[in-house]
Specification:
It holds the Pfam family PA. By secondary structure, this protein is of the alpha/beta class. It has five helices and seven strands; from the N terminus they run H-E-E-E-H-E-H-E-E-H-E-H. Helix 2 links the parallel strand 3 and strand 4.
Length: about 190
Amino acid sequence: MLFIDFYLIITILLPLTIHSVDQNDDHYQDVYFEVVEPSDINYTFRCRPSKQLSTDFNQFYENIYLIPAKPLRGCSRLQNDFELNRNIALIERGDCSFVTKIEFAQQSGALGVMIMDNDSTAHAYFVQMIDDMTKRKVLIPAMFLQYKDGHMILNSIEKNHVMGARINIPLNLTYHQMLKVPRAPGSNWL
């Protein structure tokens, strides 16, 4: 019992951005962001940065927009580059490599990319975004977002007839804060 109490005290007091105390665990690297608007999805979401492809966020972005790419799969020049400039692109997985998607977002001036899964049956895992070996340089952060979360955000943007979701990213949450933030219904944070 003493061991468990000591573990709980240490876990609650240490400022962590993880789900476990094992720093080799993939959860240690997760990035959290909150949607400020639209208000119907005012939740905190979790995404996973690419281990191979991207850079880290070098600053906190407050009230930046997460904007769906046009075309959504992002496998060709993006048609809404004016809106994506200095914002984050929301792109759906599929049809081309992750590097291709990120490169088109970079060319549009996006500060980062969230690639949402296209597999509605994949509820509990993140895809590892891998390099396509074309030696193209990724200069912006790229994160993977689970299907349910990504499509919840996309559907809200469309339903509310707005350009994108206004977000704050990355959040620096302590373990204790992670227990209190409003998570999207059905989000898998285990």
